[in-house]
Amino acid sequence: MANKDLRSFLKTAKEAGEVVEINKPFSTNFEIPAVISKAEEEKKYPALIFNNVKESDMPVVTNVFATRKRLAIALGCEEANLNAHYRVCEDKRIKPVLVDNGPVQEVVLTGDDVDLTKLPIIKHNEKDAGPYITCGAGVVKDPETGCRNIGVYRHELYGKNKIGIHMAEVSHVNYIYGKYAAKGKKMPIAITIGHHPAFYLGVLSFVPVGVDEYEVAGGLLGEPLELVKCKTVDLEVPAFAEIVLEGYIEPGELQMEAPFGEFTTCYGKAHEYPVVTVTAITMRKKPLYLDCLSGHIDHMLLGGTGRLSVIYKTIRLACPTVKDVFMPPSGCCRLVCYVSIKKRHEGEAKNIIGAVFASDPFVKYVVVVDDDVNIYDDSAVIRAIATRLHPEENAFMIKNAKGHPLDPTAYNGYVVTKIGIDATKPLKGFPDTVSVPGSEDIDLDELLGK
Predict the structure, then answer these.
(1) Which domains does the chain have, with CATH numbers?
(2) What pTM, to 2 d.p., does this model score?
(3) For residues 355 and 315, is the Cβ–Cβ distance under 8 A?
(4) Residue 1 pLDDT class (50, 70, 90 cuts)
């Protein structure tokens, strides 16, 4: 049976009223992102299919990851249970299976036929250095262990067969690339563009080096991921993907990359990064091109959702009564973390804050609240801070801490100040919160109309 793929997801999401198709012509040069940006201003976040792209005959699918509801649809669970369901499936890894062929190799382009400019690669934000591939899941192999490593990286378009790759210094791919570079060898890489959202959530899971993210993707998909061998490199890619770019990274071949609008909603500065030389493009006969709008909620939720799992699991060591964690879009789904606990002891919130900082160095602010506070509602968390926090006792700073190099407040590369806030109530002597009896029984749809 065919794997779940992007097409099967779009069919399910469309039936749920989550997809809008646009037939009017739009350009990859800002026009497609402008639609999403405008919708976001009006608090609308549909998944979009642009069927008439000016620069390409391929439709562009975008904004797929922009709501937790759609992520829940992708994982086959209720939105309220998304975090817990992810944690369970992440640990139920399913090994991939190798098959002889798949739709992703219906068309194979090599040699002079390789032309990345024919893909609808999008220029997203005004000061981006160029068009960027933003939904490319790159697979490499550790030359010493043979273990696969998969992650999502940004790729600036440089030419017909050249793209950049942003390999953060702390990333697993950078660690593996260092092994190839030390031996003076090219690093093979294959980049998947377009697959089921659960696949992306799986390969973005925070697992240690040596764990095959394809197995995590299988757990989230609920079935083994079918793989095919690449045509020009010794790697395996999903058989039911839309497009794959095969190629290699030559040690020492560098090019200036960026600026680029990042998850912080600010532009990252230009740096020299390695270059990918593309040796083959394989794809379906009529492929869909998947894009993610960087610097917007589509990007934030995609990258932030998987991080919640490792934070939760770490916090459980400090507080077994933790209820849930959330990194809100208002904090770029990376820099701010809310934690809900069933408080048992005074002071335990501070231990939890330390656990969050230890589990994810990107987090800069942690707010711990009682389990009666809705951590998915910014205003509820701010209200808890306003009414329950004693700043002199329960707010503290950690100076000169390791953060994220893309954080616009970072200095000396990645150093930031972090802040922890215990906005829980004292266990004794705090006034009750107001409530209106019977409100939970009111059916507003019936009274006010939908």
Answers:
(1) 6-302 (2.30.110.10), 306-422 (3.40.1670.10)
(2) 0.92
(3) yes
(4) very low
